[in-house]
Write a structure and sequence with these properties.
Elements: H1 5-15, H2 25-39, E1 90-105, E2 131-134, E3 141-144, H3 149-162, H4 166-170, H5 182-196, H6 201-214, H7 223-228, H8 231-237, H9 244-261, H10 270-274, H11 281-292, H12 302-311, H13 319-327, H14 337-348, H15 361-364, E4 373-388, E5 391-404
Antiparallel strand pairs: 1-4, 2-3, 4-5
Helix pairs in contact: 3-14, 5-6, 5-11, 8-9, 12-14
Length: about 400
């Protein structure tokens, strides 16, 4: 008589008088635990004894909840042989300490709670970008600025007045020597902007200071001084900045162009500045504003681009796109100051990594769409003495706990 495959397998299982034991540590542990439960005792969890602890945590076993389905169909099987030196360890807490770290959790993540256990109330703002309004009769396009931009701008100005940022003391606009002629000051400002690309303000200020003090007389840090020194010497002086090898070539080539095409001074137009090696739109607009006092555009660096997109003022991928969108509605009198304002804000509060939303007035008033909830991670370390036979070892146990801030 034909039978199903399931019936045949069931019959084979019933006819087997022995069950092959799986040679795995998890299976052996379940056998020992079941046998101990039946005998009313407790057998600790086995571990490998390789002479050194493979984990900082103790390997103490725990009876825990027992599931009968995890046990084999017999209880009197001989357990696997315990390796020499393995015995029930005794533990003693010798000392404990704790440290606190800060991290952030997105407000979108469910289950966030404050320190008193109540649900966290995060005032997450709503993006209010600039709007294009088209007049159907004339076809003219009018850009309406974000509805709350003036409130946000004023609060950022208030926060910036309370905290000193690196750009306030080491920004490119403030690095030129006051004792130099206006022409030499403009040249030093241009070089400072060229060195600042993908470089922190502290490194830029250090490199400029080296040029001001190390270039030999009679020229010093001037166009003629840069033309006179060897590229290797210039490269050594600007070594703290990023991509100093490329910037050495750019500065030397720029000095030659200024001497031959611009009457030994920096260009007076945006097009002339962008034509120089290593000078892009951001540097050109900042240099035009700082050196010549003319605000012909907004200098958009990574901070301005990132923060304005975070607020929802723009939805762009490139800084040049951000510049065009901001210039469409931002009042011209703010074109120069917005770079300095947002760079300092990005250096102190709205950092690229680790934004301090708990200290930002925009997040507490529900004006920032990118606000995040801050939590405090408490890491406690305990020194635990573990006795294994004749050996006594001290290991560290870590307990991590998150608490709302």
């Amino acid at each position: 008589m034909k039978t199903s495959r399931l019936a045949r397998e069931t019959e084979n299982i019933g006819n087997n008088s022995e069950i092959t034991e799986r040679k795995t540590r998890g299976f052996a542990a379940s056998i020992n635990a079941f046998a101990a439960e039946a005998a009313g005792g407790f057998i600790p969890k086995q571990e490998e004894d390789d002479g050194e602890d493979s984990s900082p945590l103790s390997s103490l076993g725990s009876p825990g909840p027992f599931d009968i389905e995890d046990a084999p169909s017999f209880v009197n099987a001989t357990p696997q042989k315990r390796k020499r030196g393995i015995s029930t360890p005794a533990t003693t807490v010798t000392e404990a300490s704790s440290i606190k770290l800060e991290t952030r959790i997105s407000p979108r993540k469910a289950g966030i709670r404050t320190g008193d256990g109540s649900p966290a109330k995060i005032k997450k703002g709503r993006k209010q970008p600039a709007k294009k309004v088209v007049d159907h009769e004339s076809g003219e396009v009018t850009i309406h600025p974000p509805a709350n931009w003036q409130e946000i701008y004023g609060l950022v100005q208030e926060m910036r007045r309370k905290v000193l940022a690196p750009v306030d003391t080491m920004g490119c606009e403030s690095l030129a020597e006051d004792t130099r002629s206006p022409r030499d000051q403009r040249f030093q400002t241009l070089v400072a902007l060229m060195l600042s690309s993908q470089t922190k303000d502290t490194a830029t200020a250090l490199a400029i200071r080296r040029l001001q003090t190390s270039l030999p007389p009679p020229h010093g840090f001037t166009l003629e001084g840069i033309l006179a020194i060897a590229p290797e010497t210039l490269n050594t002086l600007i070594h703290p900045v990023g991509f100093h090898n490329n910037k050495t070539r750019y500065i030397k080539a720029t000095a030659l162009l200024l001497q031959s095409h611009f009457n030994s001074d920096i260009p007076t137009t945006i097009e002339g500045l962008i034509s120089l090696p290593g000078v892009g739109p951001k540097m050109a607009y900042l240099c035009m504003s700082a050196a010549w006092g003319r605000d012909e555009g907004i200098g958009v660096d990574v901070h301005v681009h990132r923060i304005t997109n975070l607020w929802g003022w723009c939805k762009t991928r490139q800084p040049e796109e951000t510049r065009k969108e901001l210039e469409a509605w931002l009042p011209r009198e703010k074109w120069h100051e917005i770079n300095h304002l947002l760079v300092g804000f990005g250096q102190t509060i709205c950092l690229p990594v680790g934004r301090k939303c708990g200290e930002c007035m925009l997040s507490t008033r529900g004006l920032c769409p990118g606000a995040v909830k801050q939590t405090e991670v408490v890491v406690r370390r305990k020194r635990v003495k573990v006795e294994k036979g004749d050996k006594v070892k001290e290991v560290e146990e870590m307990v991590v706990k998150e608490e709302g801030v």
